[in-house]
Amino acid sequence: MNIGQAAARSGVSAKMIRYYESIGLLEPSSRSASGYRQYGDKDLHELGFIRRARELGFPLKQVAALMALWRDKSRASAEVKQLAESHIAELEHKAEMLKEMAATLKSLADHCHGDQRPDCPILEGLQDDRVSCRSTR
């Protein structure tokens, strides 16, 4: 199948397929006699793996490590678990930061009258270096 068909079946855009090949995440595809990329079931399986890992928020470097472990049938599952647990900790940290950001913005918005006056605690808070996600709680 060509790159357009592979993109449609895998849920990964043709542009991203080319990019993954260029950075070595995906092995270069075979080429037809006319030079077009050709993909098979193995490629689709790998693209699906990459897509799911990216949907879970793994950065490309970790996706590459996961793919290497996935391809290595003699791998230790402990390595995979360690990567997953490390990523979980990062996601939990990001979630906490998002909660703090929302709380800060909510506090600023609660103090804004939202009327015709020019005074705006939201804009004042954005310009004040002392206002941070942690200081408004």
Q: Treating each run of at least 4 consecutive H or I residues as one helix, how many helices?
A: 6
How many E-type strands?
Answer: 2
Report the radius of gyration as a whole number of Å: 23 Å
H/E element order: HHEEHHHH
User: What structural class do the secondary elements suggest?
Assistant: mainly alpha
Summarize the structure.
The chain is an all-alpha fold. The chain is built from 6 helices and 2 strands, in the order H-H-E-E-H-H-H-H. The chain folds into 2 domains: 3-75, Multidrug-efflux Transporter Regulator, Chain: A, Domain 2, CATH 1.10.1660; 79-127, no CATH class.
How does this structure look, described?
The protein has 137 residues and is mainly α. It folds into 2 domains: 3-75, Multidrug-efflux Transporter Regulator, Chain: A, Domain 2; 79-127, no CATH class. The protein has helices at 3-10, 14-22, 41-55, 60-71, 77-110, 121-127; strands at 30-31, 37-38. β1 (30-31) and β2 (37-38) form a beta hairpin. Residues 1-69 form the HTH merR-type domain. Keywords: Coiled coil, Cytoplasm, Transcription, Transcription regulation. It comes from Candidimonas humi. It is found in: Cytoplasm.
